[in-house]
Design goal:
357 residues; alpha+beta; 5-stranded antiparallel beta sheet
Length: 357
């Protein structure tokens, strides 16, 4: 017996094959074989996120699922953060409870837009741990609903286009610090669930749309090599699942053997900042083996409070070295959460490793 789901499922599998062939064609020239190999992992990452967020997600019985991590590299991941997703129905009311742990920054953001696999178009509302501080036991409680519960608990109004929640918790020491623990619940959950072909086909169609939209964004262009762009301030609007509490800056490196890029700057007062190296798929290199990201708690500062970060293929003996992990070129990404001011533009200088002091 044929089903709509089977038809869309076949389209999804064919799309993955088409995308693999496209990436092989684009990345098979001489140079960075690492990036071509990473492209295959990236395809599986976006497929996994597509199924987590579009196929399995149930706003009538939601749960937070991790959508970024060491094995889900996409969309601007980094070594210091954990991100979770949950779907929402804008007609329902939800209670969220989070144990803060050692997070130096923590937030929940509700996004609005289409419910068909396309990226969200705006931020409906958000709360961070400064706006919703933890109780003496380290717990934060929030309500997400179309009407104000009037209980005094921190509240986000669910507008009619609200579709998804993204949580963020950042750790200064992601290896040893305790991460936040999120829980979500809603009342009046139906007593039973049965698969419906039309609904499941719609979900797989949304997953297919998600994969196509993500693939259309990459590989991102290189940009001006060995430079960092002017930082842009905390946005008033956003696209996709970007944060509304952070300023950002992007740059790039292009290095031969024996070369290093020295990036210098000064960060404003903020709750967290870091630098990450990305490939053209907006995912970090493997930070299980080498330091390919560095944050403000890990940086060794100059006497005047400024910092100097050295990006190079090999360890130059500098305390703020960040490894290119076998990549001759890549993207540089800065983020500053809750900065007092928009950061100054970092300077970048191409040097020989042997000349570093």
């Amino acid at each position: 017996m044929g089903t709509q789901t089977a038809e869309v499922f076949a389209e999804l599998l064919a799309e993955l094959g088409d995308q693999q062939r496209r990436l092989i064609e684009q990345l098979s020239g001489p140079g960075d074989e690492q990036t071509l190999l990473e492209a295959h992992k990236w395809l599986l990452s976006i497929l996994q996120v597509a199924t987590d967020t579009q196929v399995w997600a149930d706003p009538a019985h939601p749960r937070f699922v991790e959508i970024v991590g060491p094995y889900k590299k996409w969309g601007g991941d980094n070594a210091d953060a954990f991100y979770c997703f949950a779907p929402v129905d804008p007609t329902r009311s939800y209670r969220v409870r989070v144990k803060r742990g050692d997070a130096v920054y923590l937030s929940l953001t509700v996004y609005g837009g289409p419910d068909d696999g396309h990226y969200s178009e705006r931020i409906v509302g958000s709360l961070n741990d400064r706006q919703a501080p933890p109780d003496p036991d380290g717990y934060i409680n929030m309500v997400l609903s179309p009407t104000d519960p009037g209980s005094g608990i921190p509240w986000i109004k669910l507008e009619p286009d609200a579709v998804a929640i993204i949580t963020r918790d950042y750790l200064a020491d992601p290896i040893h610090d305790a991460r936040a623990s999120w829980d979500i619940s809603t009342a009046d959950t139906p007593p039973v669930y049965r698969e419906d072909d039309a609904d499941l086909a719609r979900r797989f169609r949304a997953a297919l749309t998600w994969v196509r939209d993500q693939a259309a964004m990459v590989p991102i262009p290189m940009g001006e090599p060995n430079s960092v762009d002017e930082p842009y301030p905390v946005p008033t609007t956003t696209f996709g699942w970007a944060a509304g509490d952070a300023a950002y800056a992007m740059g790039s490196f292009l290095l031969d053997d024996g070369q290093a890029l020295v990036v210098t700057g000064r960060s404003p007062n903020c709750v967290f900042w870091n630098l990450c190296l990305w490939n053209p798929f907006l995912h970090t290199y493997n930070y299980d083996y080498e330091r390919v990201t560095i944050n403000g708690a890990q940086v060794q500062y100059e006497n005047d409070g400024s910092w100097k970060i050295v990006i190079s293929p090999t360890d130059p003996g500098h305390p703020n070295w960040v490894s290119t992990a076998g990549h001759p070129k890549g993207r540089i990404w800065f983020r500053w959460f809750l900065p007092d001011t928009t950061p100054e533009r970092p300077a970048a200088e191409l040097v020989q490793v042997k000349d570093l002091q």
